[in-house]
Write a structure and sequence with these properties.
The protein is mainly beta and about 210 residues long. Helix content is about 10%, strand content about 35%. The chain is built from 2 helices and 11 strands; from the N terminus they run βββββαββαββββ. The longest helix is centred in the middle third of the chain and has 9 residues.
Length: about 210
């Protein structure tokens, strides 16, 4: 099987920014592809079963101000292996910011380099960025949760949407790690605003 799930118009192109070209260039298509239409080089072991997930940034709209490679919308790439067969899917992380810009047809928030250009409230400790959830992906309670590691606050909205409760301090340098499976807890570690120490650890639990 090889089919197009959805396509977007990449108004960020053409661009002379090196992070929007070549290997860094965005894709305009969400695909679903499976063997045998998905070409396999070599052979897939029949006893190799599981899912590989990778998160990354995929810019859609022309950026407001200077573009940073962490500004693009989050996109999850997933490869599912079962009984010697494989299925690939890539999907945008449909955050509130992603949906708002999809309706507007343009960027509504600036990026990391020039947050002063913001004209509306955003997310994160800067308070002006889009919730792009494009750096991390964690599996917890049977769900894959996308996050942006520079700010735990960006992670909170996705947790609420996934039915996870808890508190996270607004800080930078966030790390989200999986807790003990039997306790169904997810732990977030972040720096306090305005300084590197102390650090806070928050337990986030399934409802």
């Amino acid at each position: 099987m090889l089919e197009v799930h959805a396509r977007v118009n990449l108004s960020c192109l053409p661009s002379d920014n090196p992070y929007l070209n070549g290997g860094h260039g965005p894709t305009d298509t969400e695909w679903t592809a499976s063997t045998p239409d998905l070409q396999v080089i070599g052979e897939l072991p029949t006893d190799f079963n599981g899912v590989y997930l990778r998160n990354g940034h995929n810019q859609i709209h022309a950026p407001i101000g200077k573009y940073h490679p962490f500004d693009g919308d989050g996109m999850i790439h997933g490869m599912h292996f079962v009984n010697g067969q494989a299925t690939y899917r890539n999907r945008f992380v449909r955050t509130t910011g992603f949906l708002a810009e999809s309706v507007a047809g343009e960027s509504l928030w600036p990026g990391i380099i020039e947050p002063r250009r913001a004209v509306r409230r955003g997310w994160g400790s800067i308070g002006a960025m889009k919730d792009n959830a494009g750096t991390d992906v964690k599996v917890h309670g049977g769900r894959a949760l996308a996050a942006f590691r520079a700010d735990v606050v960006l992670f909170r909205q996705g947790l609420r949407r996934a039915g996870v409760r808890g508190s996270a301090a607004g800080g930078r340098g966030g790390e989200v790690s999986r807790g003990l499976p039997q306790r169904e807890r997810l732990h977030a570690l972040c720096k306090i605003r305005g300084g590197a120490l102390p650090r806070r650890i928050r337990g986030l639990e399934r409802r």
